[in-house]
Amino acid sequence: MSSLTPTVSTQTRCVFSFSEKQQQQLYLHVKQHKGILNTADMAALCAQYKQPVEVILRACLPIAAKFAVVPISHFFVGAIVVGYDKHGEQHFYFGANVEFAQQALSLVVHAEQSAINNAWLNGAKKIAKIAISDAPCGYCRQFMNELADAQSFDILLPQQQFKLADLLPHSFGPQDLGNSYSLFNPAPQQHEFVTAAKLDKTLLSYALAAYVPYSENYSAVKISTFENGNFYGCYAENAAYSPSLSPLQSAVSQLHLAGLAMTKNVVKGIELLQTQGKENQLSVSQAVLASYPGLPVLQSISLNIKPTAV
Ligand SMILES: [Zn+2]
């Protein structure tokens, strides 16, 4: 074979990717399942394309990136968490970056946050891998450092694989603030809200499941839609504070993973629940919502919290 032979055929043997048509079909499937593939879905893809899981996982990253909403950067990032639920069943949780037009850049949701949030809200208990379409920024490395499995999970980039300690040496984490718990390994919940009002029990339970070791503002958001049910978001704090994920951004990310938009034709109502005396989410929520003209007014509720009766 001549040394001038094009190397394209070699590259295509080494790197598997879905065609645009296949990507679109898979995008519709993932959208229908609100950003999650299960083990059977993945096994079927591996069998159909005769590729191992990690190859299919990386090939799915452009599909995850299709969920990105990026009016500022136009830079689409996809991430997929491989996680296990309480029954030990494996799921693939998609995520993508979300930006808010004409608002502070610090409000954006990064793809890694989106995928981790998706896994967390949907019952993942252990994270084994996080695949990302681009190298994680410093903000995301810090966000991932709050996870219970921070020392063990693999970070898969398109061509490389790392442990978080490789990318974030000499890190600052929950233990440095005297917090022995972590995201996905929270302190046992021993509180309940004091309320006589007929509030959505699911919203209350999401708020109590918030990971808020630093502010203690148990907080959640519910976005109700006209035709596609409710989307919930939970507050997830970080020891460095600034990569914390606010409950509204958490809920908006989930809504986008169902392929929906934050428009007045989709969104019927938005509720923010916070802990009385600890509130810190109203102004940031209003800032994010200012990106979307014509939405219903945010309903803000604060409730007292008390120790659960034994
Ligand atoms: Zn990032």
Automatic annotation (TrEMBL):
Keyword check for Nucleotide-binding: no
EC class name: hydrolase
Domain CMP/dCMP-type deaminase stretches: 52-175, 194-310
GO cellular component, one term: cytosol
Binding-site residues, Zn(2+): 110, 137, 140
Manner of cofactor binding, per the entry note: Binds 1 zinc ion.
GO biological process: nucleobase-containing small molecule metabolic process; pyrimidine-containing compound metabolic process
Residues binding substrate: 97-99
Gene Ontology MF terms: cytidine deaminase activity; identical protein binding; zinc ion binding
Listed Pfam families: dCMP_cyt_deam_1 (PF00383), dCMP_cyt_deam_2 (PF08211)
Entries under NCBIfam families matching the protein: PRK09027.1
Family label: Belongs to the cytidine and deoxycytidylate deaminase family.
UniProt name for this protein: Cytidine deaminase
Lineage per the UniProt record: Bacteria, Pseudomonadati, Pseudomonadota, Gammaproteobacteria, Alteromonadales
